[in-house]
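Minutes, project check-in
Item: structure for the 508-residue chain
Input as provided by the requester:
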Amino acid sequence: MNEDVYELPEGTEYRYLVQDEGEEQIQYVRRHYVNPLLVLSRKCIILITCIVVALLTLAGYLAYVAKSSPPEETEVETECGWLRGRLKDGAYSFKGIPYAEPPVGKRRWRPPEDLVEAGACWKDMYDATRFRSVCAQVQPMRKNGKVMGQEDCLHLSVWTPSLHPVEPLPVMVWIHGGYLHMLSGQESGYCPTEELAHHTQMVYVSLNYRLNAFGFMALEVLREGSHTNTSGNYGFMDQIQALKWVQRNIHHFGGDARKVTIFGQSSGGTSVWTLMMSPLAKGLFHCAIDMSGSYVYNASLESAETDNLEFLTRTGCKDAICLRRLSISQVLQQYPSWAGDDLLDLPVKGTFAGPVAIVDGYVLQAPPFEIWENHGTYNDVPFLVGTTEQEADFHPPYENISTWTWGDYQWFVKKKLSTFGENMTNQALKLYDSSAPCPTSDRCPERLYTTMISDIRVTCPNHDLAKRAAASKLLQLVPLPQPLLLPSSRQPGLLQRSRNYSWDPLTS
């Protein structure tokens, strides 16, 4: 067969076939021609795809294992024994460390007792990988609030980026807020974290301290057997005891006991201010940051003890022995219901705000502003003051406040401020009227009411404090507008409640 007769179509494969007779034949097979390189590329793509899928699956599995696996554990020795902590997110954490004897039984309403001096240290390894109980409290701080927490709550926690740094690291001691009535040093989103310690390369300490009636009850019967011959301000004494622990132990965590800054928000800021004015805290810290605190308290020990007789009457007790036998619920249930509500609302003239900070003659020798202005003995350290414009947005005083009309707003202002006289009420309504700027269209009455509370309770006192402080020493004032821009809000709503900027002075 003459193959020249046939034209080979382009892209046609051909091959020779040998038959029995030995003749050579050409068989044409018409096929679509495929580039061999293209075939190879497709195979490679399939292979690579399989490899990528396998790697992604493996990576996901490893990430799941890493996330589900417990963080690496580590151990540190303190003056009272060994602690087991954890390494996570680039920093070590040691949580729920006791810094004083549990204030229970006969130690209720007593100054905190040092663990070493009391011979109450532990012999075995202490598990510091988890938080312990918050201090006894009622949340929310109203009549229908739930009792939670324990009296055995004097614990602190430490976060550090390095246990053995080249140079000792600065130390930040966080004092939580909550009107001296609630919350704790371990609230999620409201306390330090491993990530924060790693990012700022500083050591952080956060502490629990006694609250409400357990931390600030002043009664004459509680003086019996007390070496201080006072009552009240136990929560402040707890804070001082924690600072003593920091001075003696923070070097075990890579911290520098010579560079301790105390900082707190709301009543935590009030605590900072109190510690600055207290001779008992002398030398325990070297800088102070007050965020939305208050220094406006001047109730004497005697007046506070008289006001708190209502609590004594409610319990039916006549002496300290009886009071110390009461359960946590009994103490908190007999706590005057208005003591918490009044702190969240406009003031009422002549109404005592419950067993809170007082001038007891031991922790505080005189009202803080008198100590300051009269150049008394106080801890003269660099001082930073900051406030938010809408402090009261965190805990609005009424559940239905978001639906208020302007008529509701005026009625409540007149009701709350009536004890100060008609002139005061009219002036308040004139200053805070419906023409005031409002970022929302349907919750302006709420906005204005919480603005008035914020100004009276926090903003104006802090501005006054700043003016007094600036006249005598270096001070920086940091007003923060609201709504702010970056952190997320805990509660959805037009007023963007509970934006926390407590850490901004550290990272900006």
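Outcome recorded: The first strand starts at residue 13 and ends at 18.
No further action items on this chain.
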